[in-house]
């Protein structure tokens, strides 16, 4: 009987400890922690600094202020800052990107729309970034999700 009561309390404590953890801490740590928003006259930023939690898309602006054409693709990752560490937000199972080369002429800007239904979970409040390779370099566009 004592063993059964002890075992029950052990399981109860274990369950309560698991419930208290922040689910964002379960996300995998991003491979790159420091990613600039700008590199050699190429910059990337979110269309807005903040979006509401029920937003369906986020726009990303890529500015080419150089004198050369710049290439990028559709692929990106999204990270969330959790306790000062960037963690990768997982895509929905089966999510895929088309492999296509896109070009931005010198002095021009491209706008990409990121569909948030590509992710397993709706985005909770916090600081996020989209990371893309543009002109051979990783760039990040930060934004926040917050109730407005």
- Helix segment tally: 1
CATH class: Mainly Beta
* CATH evolutionary superfamily: Immunoglobulins
The number of distinct β-strands equals 11
Helix content: 10-25%
> Reading side by side through the largest sheet, how are the strands ordered?
3-11-10-6-7
Task: Please describe the biggest sheet, giving its number of strands, its sense, and whether it closes into a barrel.
Answer: 5 strands, mixed
Total tally of structural domains: 1
- How far do the termini sit from each other? 54 Å
Radius of gyration, in Å, reads 20 Å
Low-confidence stretches: 4-20
**Pairing-aware structural class of the strands and helices?**
mainly beta
Task: Report strand %.
Answer: 35-45%
N to C succession of SSEs: HEEEEEEEEEEE
Mean pLDDT over the residues: 86
What does the overall shape look like?
globular
Assigned CATH architecture: Sandwich
In CATH terms, what is the fold-level topology? Immunoglobulin-like
Q: What would you note in describing this structure?
A:
This protein is mainly beta and 148 residues long. The protein has one domain (26-145): Immunoglobulins (Immunoglobulin-like, Sandwich), CATH 2.60.40.10. Helix content is 12%, strand content 39%. The protein is built from one helix and eleven strands, in the order H-E-E-E-E-E-E-E-E-E-E-E. The strands form three sheets. A five-stranded mixed β-sheet has the order 3-11-10-6-7, with no helix packed on it. A four-stranded antiparallel β-sheet has the order 1-2-4-9, with no helix packed on it. The protein has a two-stranded antiparallel sheet with strand order 5-8. Strand 1 and strand 2 form a beta hairpin. The longest helix is centred in the first third of the chain and has 18 residues, at 2-19. It is globular, with a radius of gyration of 20 Å. Residues 4-20 have low confidence and may be disordered.
């Amino acid at each position: 009987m004592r063993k059964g009561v002890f075992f029950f309390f052990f399981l109860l404590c274990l369950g309560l400890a698991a419930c208290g953890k922040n689910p964002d801490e379960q996300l995998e740590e991003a491979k790159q922690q420091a990613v600039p928003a700008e590199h050699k006259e190429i910059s990337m930023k979110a269309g807005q600094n903040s979006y509401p939690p029920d937003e369906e898309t986020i726009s990303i602006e890529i500015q080419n202020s150089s004198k050369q054409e710049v290439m990028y693709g559709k692929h990106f990752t999204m990270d969330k800052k959790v306790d000062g560490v960037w963690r990768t937000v997982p895509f929905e199972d089966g999510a895929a990107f088309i492999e296509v080369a896109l070009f931005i002429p010198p002095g021009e800007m491209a706008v990409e729309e990121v569909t948030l239904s590509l992710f397993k979970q709706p985005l909770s409040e916090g600081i996020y970034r989209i990371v893309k390779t543009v002109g051979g370099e990783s760039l990040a566009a930060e934004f926040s999700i917050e109730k407005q």
